[in-house]
Amino acid sequence: KDIKDAIAALPQGKTLLQSVQKAWKYFSEQNLIELADKFFEIKKNKYETGKLSHDEFTHIKGRLANFKKNFPTFADLSPEKLLSYLKSKGANKTIANWRGTISELLEFCISRGAITSNPIRFIHGDELLVGGEAVREIGFVSVDTAKKFLAFLEAEYPQYVRFYALTMFAGVRVAEAPRLKDEYFRYEEKKIIFPAKIGKVKKSWTLEDLPENLWVWLEKYKNRPILRPSNTLRTKFGDNWNLPENFTRHSFATYH
């Protein structure tokens, strides 16, 4: 009876062999969760040796954890399921980042002999596009607003003054500012030394010819840790002060 039912369920024009091969195409006796954990350890080692930034590592860690929940075994994999999964991740850039991480994991699985092909290769890039995305207007704040905002921070949240001074007046990335230490600041020369392990591009460089007001704020709160406000608090500041998205680096470009 099972054989008869199976034959009756065959897709039109497909043989039993073809159907079985497709159904078991990504089956593996190896454990997908264990391989994902081994892949994660490789990324963790890159992070600990300074070859992967903190933000990149954090994103990869989150993607892998989510992937394991949705695809606990190789038998759960298929281009169709992965397409639906990836398209649920948001905007096109976000989807592309998720695709890159998951595809790299599956290539790792191939290198370990778990599967013979990567199902993501069968997804065309255009299939992952999720409609037209509005072009974001680049926003910045005026010098007057910047003065008032920093005065507000000094009165209410002085622990974040150095963070905003660096991001607004030196163009330092939000993720990079908290990694800076006072030993990287050359106060007399008015320079900031960026070690390779700090920056996104993993190269060392020096920031100089920076505005005087940056050094005033850095000197005023010298030797205090550079703390990054929580995302919730930064959103609150943005709403209350009508601050555009990514206003700090955009504003730096107009001040400098």
Pick out its properties.
three-stranded antiparallel β-sheet; mainly alpha
Write up what this structure looks like.
- This protein is mainly alpha-helical and 256 residues long.
- The chain has helices at 2-8, 16-23, 32-48, 54-70, 79-87, 92-111, 143-156, 161-169, 212-220, 231-241, 247-255; strands at 185-186, 191-194, 205-207.
- A three-stranded antiparallel sheet has the order 1-2-3, with no helix packed on it.
- Helix 3 (32-48) packs antiparallel against helix 4, helix 8 (161-169) runs antiparallel to helix 9 and helix 8 packs across helix 11.
- The radius of gyration is 25 Å and the shape is elongated.
- The N and C termini lie far apart (78 Å).
In total, how many beta strands? 3
Strand order of the largest sheet: 1-2-3
Main sheet record: 3 strands, antiparallel
Alpha-carbon Rg, integer: 25 Å
Please tally the helical runs, counting DSSP H or I stretches of 4 or more residues: 11
Name the helicity range. Answer: 40-55%
Q: Helix- and strand-based class?
A: mainly alpha
Instruction: Report the principal-axis shape.
Output: elongated
Instruction: Give the overall pLDDT as a whole number.
Output: 82
- Unreliable spans are 16-21, 133-138, 250-256
Q: Give the N-to-C terminal Cα separation.
A: 78 Å
Q: Please report which band the strand proportion falls in: under 5%, 5-15%, 15-25%, 25-35%, 35-45% or over 45%.
A: under 5%
